[in-house]
Specification:
By secondary structure, the protein is an all-alpha fold. The protein is built from 6 helices and no strands. It is globular and about 40 Å long. The longest helix is centred in the first third of the chain and has 19 residues.
């Protein structure tokens, strides 16, 4: 998150394109795995992480933004989760089970809490 704020403060306009691409990556990923179980999604997340590190031009920002952009792709600030809530809950569980770095898993949990998913009874107790 620090790297993001630093780049925003410096006026790095490339971030707009990065976030737009990240959103599309997530839409494609979630569409492809629409009917997949949590274990399959978790397994695929480990292979998905390097894409975000490349997209965001480095491990720190890529690992930080991967989960945040995933949940942002599913959430609407006007209507909330809507029909995407089950997918969001599945995604936090998949991150917890994945081979993603500890940094990605920590950011996933922080993002899920930020979006109040932790209030749901299906939120994983340990992620």
């Amino acid at each position: 998150m620090h790297a993001l704020l630093e780049r925003l403060g410096r006026g790095d306009t490339r971030l707009l394109e990065m976030f737009a691409k990240a959103n599309q990556e997530w839409r494609d990923f979630l569409s492809e795995l629409d009917t997949a179980d949590t274990g399959t999604i978790g397994a695929r997340l480990g292979f998905f992480q390097p894409r975000f590190e490349k997209l965001f031009e480095g491990k720190e920002l890529g690992q930080s933004m991967m989960p945040w952009t995933g949940f942002a792709c599913l959430y609407d600030t006007q209507s909330g989760w809507g029909r995407n809530q089950p997918k969001a809950l599945q995604l936090i569980q998949a991150f917890a089970r994945s081979n993603c770095s500890a940094e990605v898993k920590e950011e996933a949990r922080a993002a899920a809490i930020s979006y109040s998913l932790d209030k749901h009874p299906d939120f994983p107790k340990v992620a």
